[in-house]
Design goal:
mainly beta, five-stranded antiparallel sheet, 35 strands, 5 helices, Neuraminidase, six-stranded antiparallel sheet
């Protein structure tokens, strides 16, 4: 871990996260840069390890069988330009639960970009804050595969927020097996938050870009074979982040938060604007429908990062998620050239429900609750059918000390009533996206919250990390088990649960 020496010459970082701690397992170039997303809980680790029989405080449930996987940014080389968390090389952490024991391993996603940089010994591609350079990357910026991941067709698929190339990782060793190519698809671009339907094993995916078609949507079967793909007619380049699905439909997002393509072409930077005079549109398409079959519903202007769940109720299609009406908060003085990046990363969002009538075209929408939460997850057994529980991360607002994106507590919602319960991680302790782990053999006839909620947390007071296991029926009692991690686990983005019955056949 190294010393806890506090270095004082970092005004932007100190303003945001309260100083810089020196870590021996971090690349030492980070201490040349005043960027809060390179320090403290965000500081990368270069260590890759495999450790068996981790110590556990509390009682590990005997019926907890499977793996908590989490992806996130972990940069190796000093960036070519200003660093953004989406630029950090993807690193997957896996916490393996089986036979009453816990193992851990972590590995870099060996992307094409990372392999090239390892060969050159330096950063090659620019990051998301530009300027873009299409001579070194088909995306103009570095495809890090650091954002999302899920178990699909026997392996882990990792994805990037900007619709990059999906990568295939061995679910047991986390070794990268190269690109994930769907059989029958003529290109591999795919966005983070493409979805696997546990009831069918199908992959429902989408991608988007700066040239027509601005979005495509498709379905692959459980064996990785393309079954369906169509172009979606959009007015221009967009920045969708997620999709939803029900038994019979997929829900696509056309959001009024996008960049000016002419500015990108002329200046090689993507400048985002939130267009408050343009409605948000959600497109409901039959799961294997044609582009002309999309039914568009206009809603109040907003941005949505993450869907909780979707289902059908008679003539209605229902979507729960977290909505932001201010996706670009004001930049703060004193944060210099990073001010706009820091503002963009300050999530302001709350639990929300949309309802679309497939017969009349009526839309009903409104708050579930107003608490600032995001990174919302639910029981994947119930994805596509009616559910009510979800598990969110509490995110402090700027006036609450939320200068950077940090998770300070776990929140369980009853989305039908808006009531919630909460468990705070503790002063200086920051969590990760939590997943729901159903008990072995769980089905839609099981109680929806009969299982466990699992997250990783890092204590900035000691720089120790733990994997926390909660009884999902009552998170207020705190973790039933705390798995002691063998090293500090940096901040990450998204997590997923892989069932033991899928992994350990």
């Amino acid at each position: 871990m190294g010393s806890a020496e506090k270095l004082r010459e970092y005004p932007a970082t100190t303003r945001c996260v309260g100083g810089v701690t020196h870590f021996e397992d971090s690349p030492q170039w980070i201490y040349d840069l005043d960027n809060p997303y390179l320090h403290g809980v965000y500081a990368p680790t270069l260590d890759e390890m495999s450790v068996e029989n981790l110590p556990v405080v509390g009682e590990l449930p005997a019926d907890l069988v499977g793996v908590y996987f989490r992806n996130g940014p972990n940069p190796v080389h000093r960036p070519k330009n200003r660093y953004h968390p989406f630029d950090g090389d993807g690193m997957v952490h896996g916490v393996y639960f089986r036979d009453g024991r816990v193992a851990y391993r972590n590995r870099y996603v060996q992307t094409e970009a990372l392999i090239k940089e390892a060969r050159d010994g330096r950063s090659v591609s620019p990051g998301v804050m530009g300027p873009f350079d299409y001579s070194v990357s088909p995306f103009g910026i570095k495809d890090t595969s650091n954002t999302d991941l899920f178990w699909y067709n026997g392996d882990i698929m990792t994805l990037w927020y900007n619709a990059g190339h999906p990568y295939r990782l061995d679910s047991q060793t986390l070794e990268t097996r190269g690109f994930y190519d769907l059989q029958g698809r003529d290109h591999r671009r795919m966005s983070a938050h493409s979805k696997v339907d546990w009831s069918t094993g199908e992959l429902l995916f989408f991608d988007y870009g700066d040239e027509p078609p601005y979005m495509t949507y498709g379905v692959a079967d459980a064996a990785g074979r393309l079954q369906h793909e169509v172009a979606i007619d959009l007015p221009g380049p967009r920045l969708p982040h997620d999709i939803g699905f029900t038994t019979h439909y997929a829900i696509l997002h056309d959001l009024p938060f996008f960049h000016d393509i002419d500015v990108l072409r002329q200046h090689k930077v993507r400048v985002l604007s939130f267009h408050r005079d343009i409605p948000t549109r959600f497109g409901v398409i039959p799961r294997r429908g044609q582009g002309g079959e999309v039914r568009w519903f206009e809603c109040e202007p907003c941005y949505i990062l993450h869907v909780t769940n979707c289902w059908e109720e008679g003539d209605w299609v229902v979507m729960d998620g977290c909505r932001s009406v201010n996706p670009m908060p004001d930049a703060q003085p004193g944060e210099g050239e990073l001010a706009h990046m820091l503002a963009y990363m300050r999530l302001e969002a709350n639990a929300y429900r949309w309802r679309f009538n497939m017969v009349t075209g009526e839309v009903r929408e409104g708050d579930i609750d107003t608490l600032n939460t995001e990174f919302n997850k639910s029981n994947p057994v119930f994805h596509g059918v009616r559910s009510k529980f979800s598990y969110h991360q509490r995110i402090p607002l700027l006036h609450e000390g939320g200068h950077t994106l940090r998770f300070t507590g776990l929140v369980k919602y009853n989305n039908d009533t808006g009531q919630h319960t909460q468990w705070d991680y503790g002063p200086g302790v920051f969590g990760s996206e939590a997943v729901f782990a159903p008990k072995p053999g769980a089905s839609r006839s099981s109680a929806e919250d009969d299982g466990y909620v699992i997250t990783l947390a890092t204590d900035s007071n000691t720089w120790h990390s733990e994997c926390l296991v909660f009884d999902a029926t009552d998170i207020t009692t705190g973790p039933v088990a705390r798995v002691q991690m063998p090293h500090r686990v940096p901040y990450g983005f998204h997590a997923t649960w892989a069932r033991g019955e899928d992994l350990y056949r």
